[in-house]
Amino acid sequence: MSNCTASNIEFKLRIGTTFAVLSIVVNACSSIVACVLNFLIILTFVKTPSMRTPSYILILCLAIADFGVGAVVQPVYCAELFAKMKGYESVTCTTSYIRICSSWVLGASSLLTITAITIDRFLVLHLHLRYQELVTAKRSYTAAIVIAILSIFGILPGLFYVAAMIAGCCFSVLFLLNIVLMAKISREVSKHSANIHSQEQAVRESLNLPRYKKTVNTVHYIMGTFSACYIPVPIVASLIVANSKVPESSLDAAFILTSTLWLINSALNPVIYFWRIQDMRNAAVQLFRNIRCLHYEP
Questions:
Q1: Of 169, 228, 233, 243, which residue is most buried, by most CB within 10 angstroms?
Q2: Secondary structure of the chain: what % helix, strand, coil (to 5)?
Q3: Pairwise CA distance, residues 70 & 63, whole Å
Q4: CA-to-CA separations, 271 to 1, 23, 73, 262, in angstroms, rounded
Q5: In this structure, what are the phi and psi dihedrals at residue 245, rounded to the nearest 5 degrees?
Q6: CB–CB of 146/57 below 8 Å?
Q7: Mean pLDDT across 259-288
Q8: Sign of the CA dihedral 113, 65, 21, 29?
Q9: What is the predicted pLDDT for the residue at 295?
Q10: Are 185 and 121 in contact (CB under 8 A)?
């Protein structure tokens, strides 16, 4: 118990019960959606050999992290909120630690994967014909393993304040890197679009500009949704750490609201995939057809 006290874990809710119950319901529903949709993404990848390309391998990594959020973080967060409502301090202590550590691990995995996806799109634009030679499925699997190993160190910020500060700085650098790369990509795409008629034949053949622009827009949606869901959390957390003059009940409500928003991101990503990526949508539909045929097979 002393460990929890030392870590400043709050054992009691300072908000209305109705708000807490609503948060539990929203997280529970979002958890189910995240698990089902991301499992469908994973299953579609496993059952569709043609999707085992560098770009889709990275999307698979993001889907696995999002599945982890839906399967672990959100159920534990619901249990934590319920324990606080009932005043179960030992349960609150355990669930808080699990929620904090798993959030750091999976959050790090998500941001690292999104950064890898952004770098992948940047390389497509700048390597042209050399892209398929240098960026292979094997190297993407290697990148996925490296991301997984680095993400494990996300346990440390959940346990040590100094590690949390360092991780926060690393997150900021990665966010900035994504913004810079996306700005460069957007500028280059605009330049290519403006000069499309004067480009050399080799360049036109090496880059399917309309298709590439669509994939870049998809990354914009993924990164934009990620930013909108993640950024409010550290802002509210900073206000709490700074002991601001904002009423404690308001800070509690803001933290629960922003945490819920962050967790909902895991249910939004697969929606973006199916909406924006036709190959993945078609593969999922074909998977359902195959399952249906097996089910009705005499």
A1: 233
A2: 90, 0, 10
A3: 10
A4: 41, 22, 20, 15
A5: -80, 5
A6: no
A7: 92
A8: positive
A9: 59
A10: yes
